Amino acid sequence: MRRSHLLATAACVTLACAPLAANAQFAPAGSGGSPTASVPGPGNADEPTATTPASTSRFSGPSPYAPQAAGVNAANLPDIGSMDPNDVPQMVPQQSAAPAQGDWSAYGRDDSQTRYSPLSEITPQNADQLKVAFVYHTGSYPRPGQTNKWAAETTPIKVGDGLYMCSAQNDIMKLDPATGKEIWRHNINEKYEAIPYTAACKGVTYFTSSQVPEGQPCHNRILEGTLDMRLIAVDAATGNLCEGFGHGGQVNLMQGMGESVPGFVSMTTPPPVVNGVVVVNHEVLDGQRRWAPSGVIRGYDAESGKFLWAWDVNNPNDHSQPTGNNHYSRGTPNSWAAMTGDNALGLVYVPTGNSASDYYSALRSPEENKVSSAVVALDVKTGAPRWVFQTAHKDVWDYDIGSQATLMDMPGPDGQPVPALIMPTKRGQTFVLDRRDGKPILPVEERPAPSPGVIPGDPRAPTQPWSTGMPALRVPDLKETDMWGMSPLDQLFCRIKFRRANYTGEFTVPSVDKPWIEYPGYNGGSDWGSMSYDPQSGILIANWNITPMYDQLVTRKKADALGLMPIDDPNYKPGGGGAEGNGAMDGTPYGIVVTPFWNQYTGMMCNRPPYGMITAIDMKHGQKVLWQHPLGTARANGPWGLPTGLPWEIGTPNNGGSVVTAGGLVFIGAATDNQIRAIDEHTGKVVWSAVLPGGGQANPMTYEANGHQYVAIMAGGHHFMMTPVSDQLVVYALPDHKG
Amino acid sequence: MPNTYGNRTLTEWLTLVLGVVIVLVGLFFVIGGAQLAMLGGSVYYLICGVVLVASGVFMVLGRTLGAFLYLGALAYTWVWSLWEVGFSPVDLLPRDFGPTLLGILVVLTIPVLRRLETRRTLRGAI
Hints:
The structure holds two protein chains of two kinds. By secondary structure, chain A is mainly beta. Chain A has five helices and 41 strands. The longest helix of chain B has 37 residues, at 89-125. In chain B, helix 1 crosses helix 4 (89-125) and helix 2 runs antiparallel to helix 3 (64-85). Chain B has one domain (10-115). Chain B is mainly alpha-helical.
């Protein structure tokens, strides 16, 4: 850290700028996507009883057996037929198996999702000369009258002569990688109502067909999952829909889901193709109702779009599509993170989230409790789990896994490399597992955790897993003296707030009589940005958050009084639900109010900075921390949301991941200072930074075109991170010396 | 009857305002500090708040003692904060920056308070 950090602080104090300096984070006020300001506080202890009168105005949820209403989804496509997984044609080697040197063929560049590029034109010595090469506008941003729910989070892929990407609302395009000129664009006409918590499209998948000969349309395809639950295949050369896939190039993923409304379930990640099977997961909007639509994981034939199998947690032995009025089991854990495929083992690694109603677990089935907040390895031939590794037992803290697993080789006991998987978590515990059987390669300890807790009939797990072989991406448990502010006045406010809450460290049990502090918070530790891994140097790059949350369960009566309603309630106000996870949890005795642990009057976090960090871990020599420092300056942050313009590297909350290159550089945006930076992989020194037109909450990528290396980042911003939204993909390169 | 508030100069008015600000800060400290102490937290704010209220009241009354009480509270603040967090600039920032800034202003009021006291003594002598 720390020298530069401390020096900057000292300089700041001497310049008498301190009262304005400090703070980062979720500024207050603003749009519907902004976090809720405060919890209800004490005096909320009236337990619901049988005699508690049900509010008459409250909407009673639809029958879970009701079929999907006509017109609910944009697609409105006919049902798709099933086929025997044994009939899936042999897949030809894919671009992502061994990308060309200058390509970035998958979300994490290759099948291992390393986010490592072998390009080396840009180095720590010349990175300071990087200039904008071109900017591309996707055209997706909030129009007047629309709540800002935007955070594009897009990472383009580059294969051969094309840069392929999607807009926040799923339009697909191919750009000239050297100029940014649009070669084709396929508009999918997605409705605003289809946007769930966030309008995001993390990327598209490049698939080469074994059935369509080279030179024919749809030999090479772009696959995309959409917010309105379509799986779309277009021809990579022309952008036209692949007629041989599903119904005219589309599959309706709402099939078998049962009752739903637009924005309840959505796909935001690129679906992996494993041995010819395209695997889809989807997010289910948090906190709405216990019997929300299913979190089912499904496999489809990447050639024909035909259904192959489903993994439906509460129907573990039935892998077929529901027929008639049946549907996949409701309320099961959803998976919204990017999945990782493994052709050699025939597995897909599914990072799972929580059962619906994240903060109350008494209504979950034993099957759900086995697989929530876990990494589940599904056999792509059958859809059955081969192994499960759980990262939080009976999770009621929204510790769903947001990160994508990265594949790598670890040295085994006999010197032979062991196929391994790195699973980052929101807890800041990074698990390194043998991907053949899910057994930990680095030690994992089950340690006692606070239990049974105070919620009647909902005991907590007695132990929780800790990855003791990896550096923890967290700071020690909070203390009163960690409270911060501009002055003793707001610091005192936060000290009182700290003391008023229940807090016994990590896994503090949920409470209804007063708030509880949740640290690590649901923004991580590690979130969807995942990690990048340089297999040459063995350096693992992780960015992470120090953003505690201040949560409180509320009785049903209180929840109704607060206007917490599920999304399918006719009185539901879009954007009115506030932060993610703040919700009615209809069907349980409680609602949930989730707020940042902040001073709601200044918008400053209550805990001391830093709020975001970046860490390099040497995986080849004992998993030691090589360097670690705060990520993000105070330039665009300040009390009451005012930008301070200060270059102080205070460390801001961050969303979005990193790229590591053979040139010895790490590229990362992520922080709320709206900058992209290049960091020396070996020293941690920031060697270049540039201000983006919007928040850099997306994973950057790098590629080569016309003999030059480019670095691209979607400066889409993020509504919850309160960074400016833009529709601009910004691409940097070194000045062309030949020109 | 001596009229302490008549014919005030600008600096005397500013001293009065500073005294009022310190009383308000002190009250915030006392009320918040009492809550914090009752919740099992630090008693610093309560103790300091009492001294600050006294300091501000004396400054409003035009007494030099008010300024010295503030400087005493400031010294206590520094000793307490160094004890609590050590020489960590980022942690000393909220604890000491604002109070020290106010302290500089308080030091500037000492001549003004002295003048007020002298005037009062002279009036008393007449």
